[in-house]
Amino acid sequence: MADTALYALTARLTAAGAITPADVVAVRQVLYPDMSIDTAEAEALIALDSAVGARCREWNDLFIEAMTDYVVRQQTPADYVDEAKADWLISQLSTGGRVRSDSALEALVHILETATAAPARLALFALAQVKSAVLDGDGPLLSGKLERGRICAAEVALLRRLLYAAAGDGNVAITRAEAEMLFDINDACRGADNDPAWTDLFAKALAASVMTVSGFTPVDPGDEARREAWLAHADPSGMCGIAGFFNRMFTTPPPTGNALWGDGLDSWRAHNAEVEAAERAAEGVSGEEARWLAERIGRDGVFDPAEQALIRFLKAESPQVHPALRPLMDAVVQSPS
Fold this sequence. Notes:
The chain is mainly alpha-helical. The protein folds into 4 domains: 1-71, no CATH class; 75-203, no CATH class; 219-252, no CATH class; 284-333, no CATH class. The protein contains 16 helices and 4 strands. It has helices spanning 2-16, 21-31, 39-51, 57-73, 83-93, 102-114, 120-136, 153-163, 176-188, 197-211, 221-232, 241-251, 263-283, 287-298, 305-317, 326-333; strands at 18-19, 54-55, 94-95, 98-99. A two-stranded parallel sheet has the order 1-2. Strands 3-4 form a two-stranded antiparallel ribbon. A hairpin with a 2-residue loop joins strand 3 and strand 4 (98-99). Helix 2 runs parallel beside helix 4. The N and C termini lie far apart (66 Å).
C-alpha cells in the first residue's frame, strides 16, 4: 500500500515539474511508516529527483536522508557500503559518468562522509565530478558560478569534504589515485583566477599523499557482522555475548599482572608499535614518491604557484629530502613566496 501511494505521489509531482515543502511532507509520510527504505522506493525517489527541476531545499534534505538510510544505515552490517551498493549508487545517480543533479551529488558526498568504509572507486567517482566541473565548466555543484578552467570556492569546499570523508579512498591519508586527480585539476585551472583556498588545499593534500599513512584499516564486513551477532547474542547461561563477558569479569577472582587481557595486551602493544613505525617512516618522502612528484610536476614543463606551495610545504615539514626533489626545492628558492 505504501509503495502504491508513493508511486502515485511521485507520478503527480513529476507531471507538475516542481516539489514544494508541502509535497516533501506528503512524501515523507508515505515513505517512512515502516522506518525503512526498500530498493523500489529508493529508485522511485531517484527517478523523481532526476525528473523534476524545481526542487525545494526540504526535498534535498529528504532525498539525502533517504539515500543515506538505504545505502549506509540499512546495510548488514550497518555503515559499510559494499560493492553491490556502490555499483547500484553509481548507476542510479549518473548518466555517462556524470551525476545528474546537485541533490544527487550531495547525497553521494554525505554517504561517503557517513559510512565507515566504501569501495575506493566510489570516492574516486565523486572526485571525478569536481574534475569534470573544472574541465568543462558545468556540472551539478550546489553553489557558485562554474567556469571552465577555473576552480571556485564551492569546488574547493567539495574537494575538501571528499578528500577527508570517513569512507574516502584513503581516509586521513590521500591515495595516489586521488593525488593524480588533484594534479589533473590543477593542470586544468593553471593561470586562472582560482579561489585562494585552492593552493593551500592542493599543497597539503599532496603532501599528505606522500607523508602520511592511513591509520585506519576497514573492518572486514563479515567480521563486523559476526561481532554484532556476538554482542547481541542472548544466552540462558549468561556466559556468552557481551552480557557473558561482564558476568565473567565480575564473578571471577581478580587477575594478576596481565591475566585479564592475556596475550591481547601484548598484541595491542605490538600493533601500536607497528603503527608508530609506519607513521615515522611515512613522514619522509621515499625515493619512489619523490620521483613520482618530480615527474608529475615536470610533465607539462610548468612549475606553477600551487606546485611551488607543495614543494615549500614538503621542504618545511619533511624530515628527509630525496635528491630527486632537490632541483624543485632549489627552483622554489628563486621564486617569490
